[in-house]
Amino acid sequence: MKRIVIAIAAALALAGCATESTTRGTAWGAGLGAVAGGLYGGHGSDALIGAAIGAGVGYLVGNEQDKRKAQQMSEQSRSSNYSHNETGPFGGTRWRLTDWSPKDGREDFRSKTFEFGRDGWVKTTTTHKDGRVTTDMENYRVVGNTLIVNRGDYLVNYKFNLQGNQLTVDTANVRAVLVRT
Would the pTM count as exceeding 0.70? Predict the structure, then answer.
């Protein structure tokens, strides 16, 4: 039983940077997998294997739920009657990028600004190194301290820390610091 609890705790720690659906899916998967593995094999190691497999499957299911919700929000927000209520502290704010630290070391633009609408859309204006200016519109929502950004079929979870007028966001690929303007 002790190994089952350790396996579930490890799975939850791995899902700690995920959203609520992903965390819940990982926890349920780990728990059910541990029980099934323990009952099927009868050994603590079987429960650990079941927990690991269940956590992986649960994570995938929860992540897919997040993607579906993001897609639904994207479709709904195209309707002018849609009222968005998951904008957290960002709705109606504008930010300027002050530090961009991609893990691959590449920076292919001169500057970026972000305008978070109260309707769940964020407009990113990028000034490229060659002087071109482009804008992108993406859907966003806030769950806890996670900023979830999506457009079409992609979804990016940014862990954020907001202190006064400074916003720090992190993913596996980049760390960025923004200042409210």
Answer: no
Strand locations in 44-120 (E): 93-102, 111-116
Helix axes 2-14, 20-41, angle to 10 degrees: 150
Q: Half-sphere exposure of residue 63, counting CA atoms within 13 Å on the CB side?
A: 16
Q: What is the pLDDT along the chain (181 residues), one digit of tens a residue?
A: 555 555 555 555 554 545 666 777 788 888 887 787 777 777 777 888 888 888 888 887 777 777 666 665 555 544 444 444 689 999 999 999 999 998 887 778 999 999 999 999 999 999 999 999 999 999 999 999 999 999 877 889 999 999 999 999 999 889 999 999 9
Q: Return the closest-CA partner of residue 26 out of 48, 64, 70, 57.
A: 57
Distance CA 54, CA 32 (A): 7
First CA to last CA across the chain, in angstroms? 54
Give the separation between CA 177 and CA 170, rounded to whole angstroms. 9
